[in-house]
Design brief:
Length: about 110
């Protein structure tokens, strides 16, 4: 079993329609995490959801919804996640972030194959 390391997971829940700097918010968040050198991140699209205003977001019968909930998940060491979280305060007009301490196990080589 690989060695486990402490890390922090940041989960940011946003609307698919939310924007920042002229582009989708989820894309801007993931790009900023990449620019800061965080270990990695993924965007998940929800099938259905609601937030604090209890508005239900789901696809209609005849169309694909364009405002489904999105989850941006990023994992790295606590200090890097905390730094990104501080920057997100100016990027996210409406959303929710969840943080939890996790352990990670890294598989494979430290650098990508050439």
């Amino acid at each position: 079993m690989p060695a486990l390391r402490p890390a922090r997971r940041l989960r940011v829940f946003v609307s698919e329609r939310a924007r920042h700097g002229g582009r989708p918010l989820f894309e801007a968040v993931l790009q900023r995490a990449r620019e800061l050198g965080l270990a990695g991140g993924t965007v998940f699209r929800g099938a259905m959801g609601f937030g604090r205003f209890t508005q239900l977001h789901r696809p209609g019968i005849l169309e694909i919804a364009e405002d489904l909930p999105l989850l941006v998940e990023i994992v790295d060491e606590a200090a890097k996640i905390d730094h990104l979280l501080g920057e997100l305060e100016t990027m996210i007009g409406h959303g929710l972030a969840v943080l939890d301490d996790v352990e990670i196990a890294l598989f494979g080589p430290a650098k990508p194959p050439t």
